[in-house]
Amino acid sequence: MKLQPLADRVVLEPLDAEQKTAGGIYIPDTAKEKPQQGKVLAVGKGKTLDNGQVAGLEVKVGDTVLYGKYSGTEIKDKDGSSIFIIREDEILAIVK
Which of 8, 27, 87, 92 is the most buried (most CB within 10 A)? Predict the structure, then answer.
């Protein structure tokens, strides 16, 4: 699915959560938490400021970012995969 986000919104593909703990215990699907790390697929043009200027976004396509657990809106693709649309201010950090 091709999406072009508007304003300061970002389209993310969530990265899979860990399948196993550091101690070697496998986590069942029912106990896994919602992923909080994703890859940026598309970005909007930026937020329009009060003076009419557009402030560009700090994130760019291809960045890996951390976001809040309950951030954004989840969209299911035709094949069942999930993507998230969130505002840039809901992104907590860029993973380097």
Answer: 8
